[in-house]
């Protein structure tokens, strides 16, 4: 039961690693969205202040310093309006609005409309590019009748996609590297799911003479007959082959192999597994029914074909 608990714990740890990597990658790439949201919030604050200042100055120009300035309403990320219930001079609007936006460092283009509060009909309006024209803005020289009006400013959206691509290009290779690492961890976990609890190698017991494909393994005499050759195995070679023979067609974790075959040496060297697997592969090279394959990031599996 203990090996099963260890395997289960390792799978849970690997799962946590995968979740962490996925969340980290998502955080990296969603950073652009957070940054964009913050920028949009700051822009909305600036537009709000600029429009309130403009409304305040328009009333002052008309000799009104007592009327309350109503709140600015935002109907979408780029559109703002303020209700002007008292008379104002349309001639003063273009210069005052331009000045207020410049004070807030708002450089985006915009359209201005003056709408009737009652029916929403556009009475006057202009585009910011008209400020540079010799004849002035559209509807210049026309006076508003006294009444309630909505002063509406619609800003031209910026192309944030280009800025994101150029400003955060480094996230692409960084995110790809993390994704690759996450795949490696997931791959290792996936293979580990196929592992079943195996008894410690000290208790490895198989038949004295075991058939492996077309080869014959005699564990008691530490010999392997494969093809026309008879190989005398060392103690470690025999122990490793016995471990594979007891668990054919199963993925064996590298750490499990080390613990099973080399634990009694006290000092475990990871490279030993690769060296001894290479030796066994050479001995079994003439037998196409037996193959020891490496499972990347996990360990080895001895495939035995009938």
TrEMBL record:
Q: Which UniProt keywords apply?
A: DNA-binding
- What protein am I looking at? Winged helix-turn-helix domain-containing protein
Q: Does the keyword DNA-binding apply?
A: yes
Gene3D superfamilies per the UniProt record, alphabetical: Winged helix-like DNA-binding domain superfamily/Winged helix DNA-binding domain
Name the DNA-binding stretches: 207-304
| All residue ranges annotated as the OmpR/PhoB-type domain in the record | 207-304
């Amino acid at each position: 039961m203990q090996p099963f608990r260890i395997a289960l714990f390792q799978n849970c740890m690997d799962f946590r690693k995968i979740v962490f990597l996925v969340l980290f990658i998502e955080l990296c790439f969603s950073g652009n969205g957070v940054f964009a949201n913050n920028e949009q919030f700051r822009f909305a604050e600036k537009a709000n202040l600029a429009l309130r200042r403009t409304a305040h100055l328009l009333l002052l120009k008309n000799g009104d310093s007592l009327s309350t300035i109503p709140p600015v309403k935002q109907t979408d990320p780029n559109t703002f309006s303020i209700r002007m219930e008292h008379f104002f001079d349309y001639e003063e609007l273009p210069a005052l609005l331009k000045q207020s936006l410049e004070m807030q460092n708002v450089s985006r283009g915009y359209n201005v409309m003056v709408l009737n509060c009652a029916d929403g009909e556009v009475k006057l309006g202009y585009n910011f590019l008209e400020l540079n024209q010799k004849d002035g803005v559209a509807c210049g020289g026309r006076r508003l009748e006294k009444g309630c009006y909505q002063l509406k400013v619609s800003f031209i959206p910026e192309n944030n996609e280009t800025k994101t691509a150029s400003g955060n290009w480094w996230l692409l290779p960084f995110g790809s590297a993390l994704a690759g690492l996450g795949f490696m961890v997931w791959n290792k976990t996936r293979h580990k799911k196929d592992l079943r609890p195996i008894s410690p190698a000290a208790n490895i017991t198989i038949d004295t003479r075991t058939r492996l494909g077309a080869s014959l393994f005699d564990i008691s005499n530490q010999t392997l007959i494969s093809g026309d050759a008879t190989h005398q195995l060392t103690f470690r070679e025999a122990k490793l082959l016995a471990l594979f023979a007891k668990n054919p067609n199963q993925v064996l974790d590298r750490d499990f192999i080390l613990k099973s075959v080399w634990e009694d040496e006290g000092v475990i060297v990871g490279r030993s597994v690769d060296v001894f697997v290479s030796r066994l592969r050479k001995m079994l090279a003439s037998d196409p029914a037996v193959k020891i394959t490496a499972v990347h990031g996990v360990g080895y599996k001895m495939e035995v074909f009938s």
